[in-house]
Write a structure and sequence with these properties.
Layout lengths: L6 H14 L2 H7 E7 L8 H13 L5 E10 L2 E9 L5 E11 L2 E11 L23 H16 L17 E2 L7 H14 L4 E12 L2 E10 L2 E12 L2 E11 L14
Parallel strand pairs: 1-5, 6-10
Antiparallel strand pairs: 2-3, 3-4, 4-5, 7-8, 8-9, 9-10
Helix pairs in contact: 1-2, 1-3, 2-3
Length: 260
Amino acid sequence: MNNNMNNKEKAIALINSFTTGDVTVAQELLKADYIQHNLLYGTGRDAFAGSVQYLGSAPVKTTVKNIRAFEDGDKVFLHTVYNFAGAGNQVAFDIFRFDNGKIAEHWDNLATITPPNPSGHTQIDGPVESKDEEKSAANIEFVKHFIEDVLMGKNPQKTPEYFNGDNYIQHNSGIADGLSGLGNALEGLAKEGIHMIYNKTHQVLAEGNMVLAVSEGTFGGVSTSYYDLFRVENGKIAEHWDVMETIASKDKWANDNGKF
């Protein structure tokens, strides 16, 4: 393993080990007491290495395609498409926390890849680079206020203030572009008795104009983890990608670290 790799490169090398089955990558990059928040896997470096070994020995090769990689302080967040041992393509957000050059902690959200949305966008297309890195802190605060005002419904009348008219690119598989598309989708869900509720935001990370928020709530009454990636342009939300995942019931947890 190249000791000169930066944290983004280390995070990508770690997820790529799923394709090779090379457990030495995990052993070199992870702290022994690595904390795992994917509730379906055991915690610790040895548990991760065991997963790498298992996937490496599977009859169908695992594929990994990283789409975006961003960094905020001691954390790297990735937007990636996985196909674990031929089980089908999944889109994921991964967050890795580093400590003294080693990966110490991991959070993620995964969902099945779906066809393009009503506006023709996929869950992964669009810009992959960040800009305006000097605005990271301001963009974090902007997104925090948006989540509180709009997604948590504390000040819904402020919704238009966060957008440039109806100019808004949407990558959620069921929602069309524009603030109008978002409104129509939420109205349709409400008519079916399905409500998307955000209760708490646990992390907001940014590299310039790319801001990832990790929130907890319910979707249709079911406990749900929301990972929302926003592209901020000129002080407005210009583009949005997301991954929603049902939080597994506690009897299915393989570790006690919690989802968040």
